[in-house]
Specification:
This protein has three domains: 12-81, Arc Repressor Mutant, subunit A; 86-199 and 382-401, ATPase, nucleotide binding domain (Nucleotidyltransferase, domain 5), CATH 3.30.420; 208-376, Nucleotidyltransferase, domain 5 (2-Layer Sandwich), CATH 3.30.420. Helix content is 41%, strand content 21%. The chain is built from 14 helices and 15 strands. It has helices spanning 12-30, 35-42, 46-58, 123-140, 176-180, 193-204, 265-268, 270-280, 292-304, 308-332, 347-361, 364-367, 381-396, 398-401, and strands at 32-34, 62-69, 75-81, 87-94, 97-104, 109-116, 144-151, 155-156, 161-162, 188-192, 213-219, 223-229, 232-233, 336-340, 371-374. It has a five-stranded mixed sheet with strand order 6-5-4-7-10, with helices on both faces. It has a five-stranded mixed sheet with strand order 13-12-11-14-15, sandwiched between helices. The two termini are 27 Å apart. Bound molecules: zinc ion. The site of zinc ion has 6 residues, from loops.
């Protein structure tokens, strides 16, 4: 029964499922735990945990493995999540390229591929190529339980449309929910790219638990952020909460396609960075570059080699990223901000300035407790995030989605 009231209650069956979900989410992070450890983490009695784990074992969702040492050297049976039995397909759609990968719910990658396309290419044709590739993987991997799709923001998640795709107007009219909801015999879950990145960091980023609030700051072709607060993605009304790229840092600044002026995205995206680099360091681009990520890398490399102009440019972009972090801290009070996407490859070149700006412009009691890090994920965070979208959803309803065999 669908809940339609604003203050929805939970039936006993919902509560049981929520507890099962909490157990599989703990095991997704901890790999192996005893029943006693799970009981302690969840604040439930061991008798309740034994019953819940018993059901999950019967369903083939978790297994008993060997002996683990508990407190006081007590030995107990270990429980693990059967992650390898539950695969997800992650699909990243971006300007110029879509990528597809098969992962399991622990984040292990099985296969991935990339398909490039032109900005003027027919949207329907690109979409049907994407669908064909997904279907092939479904035929090949029988244990896929869900599909996650990451789209460029701002994505209107109730309508299924991207509100604005810079330089790709034909994609504006595609309704992704209608296109994909009945296409496969597996559920498809869709979120915007920064939310996907936030979920990738949350589930696969090894940031430890307990973790109260994580903000992913995407600084690439676009600028955005995704916030996971107390285990839930911050959505807002239409799913476009935390579009930090369109927060103005100069109300008389450059005009933005969104209608605002001086949007952060105009100062620290790949586009802004390469425009400045083209003006200041044209010699770096005498040789043609493969893509814009590689072009950015050339500037970072020059800065690392001591080129003063390159160092100044990197410093400039780090200043704006720092301003973005100040806004993120004041808006979302995160425990950790993870900076990701192409500009984050500036890594040690940008981080000190970012931290300095945050120290100068936020209250000490706040900034002393916020960790600011560069993403260390080895897989493209948006593609990984697409897998994390599906993982997040299936772990919330283990009885419905996870395989039982
Ligand atoms: Zn804007």
């Amino acid at each position: 029964m669908k809940k339609v009231t604003e203050v929805a209650g939970n039936n006993t069956t919902d509560l049981t499922e929520m507890n099962r979900s909490a157990i599989v989410r703990i095991l997704q992070q901890k790999e192996i735990c005893s029943r006693a450890e799970i009981a302690k983490m969840m604040g439930l009695t061991q008798a309740s945990i034994t019953k819940l784990v018993g059901y999950l074992i019967d369903m083939g969702i978790v297994s008993e493995v060997g002996i683990v040492k508990g407190s006081g050297n007590r030995r107990s049976i270990g429980i693990r999540l059967n992650a390898e039995k539950n695969l997800v397909i992650g699909v990243k759609f971006a300007r110029h390229v879509f990528a597809i990968g098969v992962f399991d719910i622990s984040g292990k990658l099985y296969t991935q591929s990339e398909t490039e396309f032109g900005l003027d290419e027919n949207a329907g044709k690109v979409l049907s190529q994407m669908k064909d590739q997904i279907q092939k993987l479904l035929d090949e991997y029988s244990n896929v339980v869900a599909i996650g799709l990451a789209l460029p923001g701002p994505y209107l998640r109730k309508e299924g449309r991207i509100a604005m795709v810079t330089r790709m107007p034909s994609w504006h009219n595609i309704n992704f929910i209608d296109e994909l909801k009945n296409e496969f015999d597996k559920p498809v879950f869709i979120e915007q790219d920064a939310n996907a990145g936030a979920l990738a960091e949350w589930w696969f980023g090894n940031h430890g638990r307990p973790l109260s609030s994580l903000t992913y700051f995407l600084v690439g072709e676009g600028v955005g952020s995704g916030v996971v607060d107390h285990d839930s993605l911050l959505m807002g009304n239409q799913g476009i909460a935390s579009e930090v790229g369109h927060i103005s840092i100069d109300y008389n600044g450059l005009p933005c396609e969104c209608g605002n002026k001086g949007c952060l995205e105009l100062y620290c995206s790949t586009m802004a960075f390469l425009k400045r680099a083209g003006e200041e360091l044209p010699e770096l681009f005498n040789e043609k570059y493969k893509n814009r990520v590689e072009a950015c890398d050339r500037v970072f490399e020059a800065a690392r080699e001591g080129n003063e102009k390159a160092k100044k440019l990197v410093e400039e972009i780090a200043f704006y990223i720092g301003l973005g972090c100040v806004t993120l801290i004041n808006a979302y009070d995160p425990e950790i901000i993870v900076i990701g996407d192409s500009i984050s490859k500036g890594d040690e070149l940008i981080l000190p300035t970012v931290k300095k700006i945050v120290e100068e412009r936020t209250i000490p009691e706040i900034h002393n407790r916020v960790k600011i890090e560069i993403s260390t994920l080895s897989i493209d965070p948006t593609l990984y995030g697409a897998a994390a979208i599906a993982t997040d959803r299936v772990l919330r309803k283990p009885s419905e989605y996870l395989v039982s065999n």
